Q: What sequence folds into this?
């Protein structure tokens, strides 16, 4: 429910979407009541509560929606932490593959004029995010056939989202994987195979004309014009629309969702860090920066035994730079929690023990 964004997928029918959302968070509460209780994730709680209180004090357009999102956030941080601790790397990887397959189904069975496919995730960038997370996790999968199958599917599905962020992160993660182990250079071959198939299927699948022509041009003598096309409507241009609004109220922000698309005349800021600063001010921003700097520092320290942790953390920071729906995005929050608890040594030990027990039992 969380990793496939099922409640959001059914948002076209408000009654079904609301029912599934209540069901998801109700199940989380039940899971928490039945599971072992470990340490609360205080940094995430402070981040969320400070953001909601400060932005809500400044301005709230819809009090009911504000309250609903605050409650969901607290439930996810408290209950989701136990679920994250008990979700193994292999389980997360398989769920990511299944989620990415919905992108392929979307492209094959339900092609549309937009031409950027997203499956369960509705937003192509969100779909690209689950693909890159699964791609990072593939490097810790011992079963070679499952690993290679997953890498190919996740790469292919990620490409047909035509997300610039996915393609950039895929290249970065692939380079890091080769630095960690030269044998991982095989993944570049898988990537080349996925690209060839995407180019071959262009006549069958209705890809977005602008993004596809730019993507295709990267491999021809039109690379310069393709790069120019890709840069059009970049996130830098979107961010710049909000600079004045942010600098006018740097300490307490402009209010809840004021940079998240509440203004109908322009799109949201598409940057989590700018969103937090612009809506709730400097304190929640410093808290958020502190959390992810800690994660980057710990992942670098643990790179030699666990390079996938650095891959995941870089991917997380990368997606936060181009999306602004952080506090009500279950996929991003759950993934952040999942990475965070594994960067704490005691959680690493617990997961190792659990996986050993499962192996012995089988």
A:
């Amino acid at each position: 429910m969380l990793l496939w964004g099922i409640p959001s997928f059914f948002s076209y029918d408000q009654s079904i979407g609301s029912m599934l959302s209540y069901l998801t968070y109700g199940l989380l509460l039940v899971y928490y009541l039945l599971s072992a209780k470990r340490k609360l994730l205080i940094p995430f709680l402070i981040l969320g509560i400070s953001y909601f209180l400060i932005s809500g004090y400044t301005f709230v357009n819809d009090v009911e929606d504000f309250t609903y999102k605050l409650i969901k956030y607290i439930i996810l941080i408290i209950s989701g932490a136990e679920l994250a601790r008990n979700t193994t790397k292999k389980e997360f990887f398989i769920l990511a593959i299944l989620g990415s397959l919905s992108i392929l189904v979307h492209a094959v069975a339900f092609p549309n004029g937009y031409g950027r496919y997203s499956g369960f995730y509705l937003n192509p960038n969100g779909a690209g995010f689950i693909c890159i997370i699964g791609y990072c996790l593939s490097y810790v999968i011992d079963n070679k056939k499952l690993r290679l199958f997953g890498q190919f599917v996740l790469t292919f599905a990620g490409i047909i989202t035509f997300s610039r962020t996915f393609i950039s992160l895929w290249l970065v993660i692939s380079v890091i994987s080769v630095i960690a182990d030269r044998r991982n250079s095989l993944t570049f071959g898988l990537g080349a195979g996925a690209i060839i198939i995407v180019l071959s299927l262009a006549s069958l699948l209705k890809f977005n004309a602008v993004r596809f022509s730019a993507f295709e041009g990267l491999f021809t003598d039109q690379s310069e014009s393709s790069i120019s096309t890709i840069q059009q409507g970049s996130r830098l241009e979107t961010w710049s629309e909000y600079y004045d609004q942010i600098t006018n109220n740097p300490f307490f922000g402009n209010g809840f969702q004021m940079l998240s698309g509440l203004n109908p005349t322009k799109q949201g800021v598409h940057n989590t860090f700018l969103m937090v600063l612009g809506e709730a001010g400097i304190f929640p921003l410093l808290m958020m920066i502190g959390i992810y700097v800690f994660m980057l520092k710990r992942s670098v320290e643990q790179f030699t035994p666990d390079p996938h942790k650095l891959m995941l953390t870089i991917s997380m920071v990368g997606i936060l730079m181009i999306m602004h729906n952080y506090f009500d995005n279950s996929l991003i929050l759950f993934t952040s929690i999942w990475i965070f608890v594994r960067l704490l040594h005691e959680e690493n030990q617990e997961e190792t023990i659990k996986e050993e027990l499962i192996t012995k039992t089988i």
